[in-house]
Amino acid sequence: MITGGAGQLARAFCTLLDKANAKYIALDIDKLDISDIDELSKVCREYNPDFLINCAAYNNVDAAESEFETAMKVNYTGPKNIATLSVEHKFKAIHFSTDYVFGGRQLYIPFKEQDETAPLNKYGISKLKGEQIFLEISPKNLVFRVSWLYGEGRQNFIYKLLQWSQSRNEILIANDEISVPTSTYFVAMNALEALDANGLFHLVPDGYVSRYDYAKFVLNKLKVKSSIKPVPAEYFKLPARRPNFSAMDSTLFFSLVNREKKHWSEYLEEFLTNYKF
Ligand SMILES: NC(=O)c1ccc[n+]([C@@H]2O[C@H](COP(=O)([O-])OP(=O)(O)OC[C@H]3O[C@@H](n4cnc5c(N)ncnc54)[C@H](OP(=O)(O)O)[C@@H]3O)[C@@H](O)[C@H]2O)c1
Fold it and tell me: Best of 149, 160, 180 to mutate for ligand 1, by most ligand atoms within 8 A of CB?
């Protein structure tokens, strides 16, 4: 069972599961609100899943500053409910968290799972509380921290960048925010390979990049001739603070599954080559 079934990560799972002829059901908020434990319990009884992959989330980082309660309902109460029911109904639950649980660092050394968390914004706090309660209730469950997801859909940086390139004469992008662009297919494929694992893992490709260089890479590859200028993140005066550097290190996960991982740019190039914008 996939929750948050209309989101970009859920869609990657559905595509891969379709290809594998797997039996699954994907439900979005209109059919199943993960913050409602009674509804969730009813759906779990009805479908009796072996696995529940929670792709549902409140992801609006800036709005979370003023809508913390709503963010907590989805990002904390949701995973708490799912973990509780995973024990009761004996299914394995998989959940996703974020690099925004980290507060940044001056030395560019990617964060490992055991590194200290220090979220700078309310979205990060809600996601950190969510992953903690999820594994506290059942350490047999599985959490992947991912960053800067892109895939099919509109809720991602690549889509927004292409919109800006059509509507603005000059695109301003922060050059002091660094992390790892991560394909939803990369996440879904690797997660499906590791359903037997338990605990917390970082799941991103190798390397890291600033938002500005990421944007330049996308525009160059798609041959979009827009003027683009680097600015400090502070310039945008956004409600939520972001870490300057939140790249993560996935060595632990890849030593466990013994699979190949490539540089973020290779996955991105593949995506940009094949995706019909
Ligand atoms: N996107 C990123 O860059 C990023 C970075 C780091 C971590 N993550 C994490 O990765 C996971 C997948 O993210 P994504 O980018 O695929 O998210 P997404 O595209 O925003 O999808 C999330 C889905 O969950 C739905 N939803 C919201 N509240 C719900 C509720 N109470 N019950 C059921 N469904 C609900 C949303 O519906 P509505 O659209 O109608 O609200 C949306 O369809 C999330 O855990 C996210 O926090 C994402």
Answer: 149
